[in-house]
Amino acid sequence: MSRDSNTRRRTPPGIFLIKSVRGKDWTLKSYRYIILLLTFIAYASYHASRKPSSIVKSVFYPESLKNSKVNPWPVGNVFIKEEEFVSFDRNRVESQGWYPFNQSDGTSKLGEIDVAFLACYSSGMYVAGHLGDTLDLRLFLTTGMIGSGIFVGLFGMGYFWNIHVFWFYLSMQMVAGLFQATGWPSVVAVVGNWFGKRKRGLIMGIWNAHTSVGNISGSLLAAAVLDYGWGWSFIVPGALIASAGVLVYLFLPAYPEDIGFCGVTDSSPNLESLSQAEEDRTQKGYVVKVEKSSGIKEGSGSRTGIGLFEACFIPGVIPFALCLFFSKLVAYTFLYWLPFYLSQTEIGGEYMSVKSAGNLSTLFDVGGIAGGILAGYISDKLNARATTAATFMLAAIPSMLLYRTYGSISRTINILLMVVAGLFVNGPYALITTAVSADLGTHSSLRGDSRALATVTAIIDGTGSVGAALGPLITGFLSSKGWDVVFIMLMVGALIASLLSSHLVIAEFTERSHKSVPSSHGQQTDEATGLQPLLRNQR
Length: 539
What we know:
By secondary structure, the chain is mainly α. It has helices at 2-10, 13-22, 28-48, 52-55, 57-60, 88-96, 106-134, 137-160, 166-180, 183-194, 200-207, 209-224, 232-251, 276-294, 308-312, 317-344, 354-382, 385-406, 411-441, 453-478, 483-500, 502-514, 521-527, 532-538. Helix 18 (385-406) packs antiparallel against helix 19 (411-441) and helix 22 packs across helix 24 (532-538).
């Protein structure tokens, strides 16, 4: 009776209500679909709330020489209001910018805004990861999402309150960064709690499309309301992530134990809808793990995680973290500066508007979706996460060079090269932050029933976020010297990322050249993580 009472207490209220109305529970497979959908929506809203600052950069710091009489491509007049219908205030802001960002040091101040957000995001990540392994993940994630929505919205209120103090915008971004740090460790931990390592690269590659979907939706939302004042470009995405936070609170079971799966047995009705093969795997693998953890720590309320420094000694954590440092430096520079670059660059003999640049930049994320899925699929097939990530980063170098060199010839060529660059830039970034982090967070070197999913994810992505903070900051200064210098910096970053993973790549190739043909299915499953070679070398 006591255990049933505790389960009901931990069950999200929305699921508890639906179960009461339906009179029966969902299957394990159904719950996994729910987990993927809710965490997808949650982190897509996180990324959507980060995009407005990149969209409004050219409004804050305009260049009148870039005005064009031709209807901007590719949206034409669909989203662009004619000149005579735009309000006086809107024209004034577009032509004069927004103090203090419209001064000679405007791009530097915009870079400082970005780095303030990302510095707080990366530092908060380390704390958030440990908290995520010890607190109720559902409540922790909900708090982060609602807090992010509030402070993103407050940044936009600066437009309506006519605030021109730099420290106001800086402080709003810093607090928003701290709340945003709760997102990634939490969603990766939730997905890792519900899914095993089998085909994890492909599953998480598809799931990681939320990053690009969030970037695309955030860009389109911010651009769509830009004509009504740049403040709305922040308020609307802020309201979106806060609403998604309420959805998470109502329906997200962070752990299988939260909805009563800690006692699953062979005769459990929750497995009836699964195929026999999947049922056998679930009963022999997944259920055993749950039963082991249910003796002391049941569900969200009583879990303990390992220490931050202890997690650093898990084999592979530090090398992948350093690799992600430079990988994210490149990816986030595109995230924050690509719309500005497009509005400042002549493409096919024309300059495009701020809104059109924001819409066009979403195609980079379309390539990123394909890159994440492709990298996950290849890493599963080759059983080699590090080799896949390093190969993608090396391929990103010529793709960025081609984009900078030939992207201005025509709009069609710009699109094609942008998609290719997005594929190779975002592919390794997606792979390391998802499948690799989840592999290491459930590593066999963890003692007893310690949990490290959120902690390991925080270490890897937190270190990467330091690079993500430096990239946009450096770009703010280098862009005044010319965009060629910026692209050189990005290509050097991609090269360093691939070199930092060389030790892991060598370990994978060495293992593949010496290993014999696996004699059992279980051995193949162990090697599917792509991390086995590294472990054997370090034992």
